[in-house]
Amino acid sequence: MVQIIIQYVLVILLVVGLGYLAYLLKDKKINIKDDYFGLAYAILNTLKSDEATSANIKKIIRAVSEGVKFVEDNYKNVDNAIKEEEALKLIRESIDALGFESPIDESSIRYLIRIAASMLPATHDGNKK
After folding, report:
1. Do both 53 and 112 map to the same domain?
2. Parent domain of 54
3. Together in a domain, 112 and 70
């Protein structure tokens, strides 16, 4: 009998906790479907409030993906660390050209570079021995 009561109390606490989580997300005005897997929220923390729009996030992500694609196409036989540095330089220039007042930190850009690089199609056959 005690176990059944404990189970009901735990289920009620779980429902209340999930409701509170939904309330917090709505209170912060975070739209989960526009968050791009958590990337937008990470970038939005570095931008000023008037610059933190979904259109600007799309521009930043597009600049990162174009920079990574350019580096992968032009530096095929170079070490990945050098590719990342070259991509960082190109992307930093692209983001600076967008004209944001607040800077985006280097670690966020490196994080986005690594994600964009992982989304590119494979350039070699990993099954060869």
Report:
1. yes
2. 31-119
3. yes
91's tokens = 């992307």
Tokens of 122: 């494979």
Residue 28 has φ and ψ, to the nearest 5°, of: -80, 0
pTM: 0.62
Burial track 4-26 (b if 16+ CB lie within 10 A, e otherwise): eeeeeeeeeeeeeeeeeeeeeee
Q: Does one domain contain both 69 and 104?
A: yes
Give residue-wise pLDDT tens across range 35-94.
555 666 666 666 776 776 778 878 888 999 999 999 988 888 888 889 999 999 999 999
